[in-house]
Amino acid sequence: MTAPVVGVVMGSDSDWPTMKAAAEALDEFGVPYEADVVSAHRMPHDMIAYGSDAASRGLRVIIAGAGGAAHLPGMLAAVTPLPVIGVPVPLKHLDGMDSLLSIVQMPAGVPVATVAVGAARNAGLLAVRILAASDEALRAKMADFQQTLYEQAKAKGARLRESLG
Ligand SMILES: Nc1c(C(=O)O)ncn1[C@@H]1O[C@H](COP(=O)(O)O)[C@@H](O)[C@H]1O
Fold first, then answer.
1. Domain PurE, which positions (predicted)?
2. Annotated binding residue at 42?
3. What predicted TM-score, i.e. pTM, was given to this entire model?
């Protein structure tokens, strides 16, 4: 088995229905990843250990999703030099606005690349792009993927124009 280069972590297993889209995107590009529950609030020492050891274990990007008072992505970014992508997970109350603001409003010097509320697939794709910056084969796959998006968008336009006669 190939060693994981992306860590997909979340504050609770209840985040997985949202976060699995990140894993699926990584699967599509053949990027090896690991997935786990790591909570800054409920397991602070484990969280610090996860972030501190991530780079030496071979991870190159961390995707961190959390809902509500979502401190996990920022706290991981505080203890690792790796890029951290934050996914605001929408919960029953406040529609993910709480999580979005908790993740996106980082103090200067400690960046978290925040995707849209619930947009775990984009987090996976962003991780692929980060890795692809230094991996020509992966960059070619990303370019193919973008071409497919382009063709699908063109086809939608053609169908719309056709339906209008
Ligand atoms: N935001 C955080 C953190 C954290 O930021 O450390 N740990 C758990 N949580 C969030 O609590 C929500 C409810 O969790 P439960 O479903 O386990 O009660 C989840 O969305 C999780 O990400």
1. 4-153
2. yes
3. 0.97
